């Protein structure tokens, strides 16, 4: 990679916008059918990002997206296992490979433009792609499934009203949230990130949301309290709303921190970046002329690759 940070930033922006537009256009059809939209739409989006960095445009970039569509996949069944991260990584790999193939002149034609949505079952429900869909993007405040965040915050608010762990708890959510976080009892840290009962019990027992470090292990106290939490589905609720009832107290959370309706403050966003150990990378991104490989080197060091 011979480009500088400015080129990589442009690729990231274009890929991110494409990803947001594609997932929004096929939501909730992809989710309803059991697909993992991040992985399914991630391959074409990665092709846009990689293709931009490689200097592709016009028909060549379009072919990169079409080629990436050949390798799309990813299932919600992988949630709570190593598979979730792996299928997102495979999507990125597919997109990069597609961009290189397009650069070499590989031509798929245009049939995939009309067949992709049908193949994934979202054709009839798909809407036109809008690049401004990116403004609806979330920034996760907590290192667990996005659809658990309102349950976490409802439990947190309940503790501030005097609720304590151990009493019977009822959490009502939209069916989509339950599909995203289908687990109850957990036996591993990855599973804990997809369990509304576990995360609710954790907050009620600790009086605060879980940190990144908290979710690197299964908390024995929270795990023991999972049977006290019952999750109920209500299709009449908004997709991300959670209503928690405990000890006669009812708390409703419609918008979690980091959602479009309740964005993070500048300080909260900076704290999020710091918690990920990404401050050094952000510093490099502030200097557009920095060689892109300098950023890659920092990332490799950060994740411990050789």
From TrEMBL:
<dbReference type="InterPro" id="IPR042183">
    <property type="entry name" value="MmgE/PrpD_sf_1"/>
</dbReference>
<dbReference type="InterPro" id="IPR005656">
    <property type="entry name" value="MmgE_PrpD"/>
</dbReference>
<dbReference type="Pfam" id="PF19305">
    <property type="entry name" value="MmgE_PrpD_C"/>
</dbReference>
<protein>
    <submittedName>
        <fullName>MmgE/PrpD family protein</fullName>
    </submittedName>
</protein>
<dbReference type="InterPro" id="IPR045337">
    <property type="entry name" value="MmgE_PrpD_C"/>
</dbReference>
<dbReference type="InterPro" id="IPR045336">
    <property type="entry name" value="MmgE_PrpD_N"/>
</dbReference>
<dbReference type="Pfam" id="PF03972">
    <property type="entry name" value="MmgE_PrpD_N"/>
</dbReference>
<dbReference type="GO" id="GO:0016829">
    <property type="term" value="F:lyase activity"/>
</dbReference>
<comment type="similarity">
    <text>Belongs to the PrpD family.</text>
</comment>
<feature type="domain" description="MmgE/PrpD N-terminal">
    <location>
        <begin position="15"/>
        <end position="106"/>
    </location>
</feature>
<feature type="domain" description="MmgE/PrpD C-terminal">
    <location>
        <begin position="142"/>
        <end position="278"/>
    </location>
</feature>
<dbReference type="InterPro" id="IPR036148">
    <property type="entry name" value="MmgE/PrpD_sf"/>
</dbReference>
């Amino acid at each position: 990679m011979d480009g500088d940070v400015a080129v990589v930033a442009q690729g990231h922006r274009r890929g991110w916008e494409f990803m947001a537009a594609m997932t929004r256009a096929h939501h909730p059809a992809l989710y309803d059918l059991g697909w993992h939209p991040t992985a399914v739409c991630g391959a074409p989006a990665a092709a846009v990002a990689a293709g931009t960095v490689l200097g592709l445009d016009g028909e060549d970039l379009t072919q990169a997206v079409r080629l990436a569509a050949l390798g799309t996949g990813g299932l919600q069944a992988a949630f709570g296992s190593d598979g979730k991260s792996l299928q997102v990584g495979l999507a990125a790999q597919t997109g990069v490979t597609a961009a290189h193939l397009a650069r070499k002149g590989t031509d798929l034609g245009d049939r995939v433009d009309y067949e992709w949505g049908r193949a994934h079952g979202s054709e009839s429900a798909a809407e036109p792609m809008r690049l401004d869909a990116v403004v609806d993007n979330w920034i996760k405040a907590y290192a667990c499934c996005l659809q658990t965040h309102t349950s976490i915050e409802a439990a947190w608010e309940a503790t501030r009203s005097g609720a304590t762990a151990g009493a019977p708890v009822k959490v009502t959510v939209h069916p989509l949230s339950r599909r995203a976080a289908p687990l109850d009892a957990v036996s591993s840290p990855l599973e804990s990130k997809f369990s509304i009962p576990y995360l609710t019990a954790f907050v009620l027992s600790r009086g605060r949301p879980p940190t990144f470090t908290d979710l690197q292990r299964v908390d024995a106290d929270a795990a023991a309290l999972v049977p006290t939490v019952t999750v109920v589905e209500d299709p009449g609720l908004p997709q991300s709303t959670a209503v928690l009832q405990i000890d006669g107290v009812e708390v409703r959370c419609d918008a979690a921190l980091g959602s479009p309706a309740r964005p993070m403050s500048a300080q909260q966003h900076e704290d999020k970046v710091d918690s990920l150990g990404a401050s050094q990378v952000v510093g490099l991104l502030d200097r557009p002329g920095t060689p892109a490989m300098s950023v890659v080197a920092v990332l490799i060091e950060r994740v411990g690759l050789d």
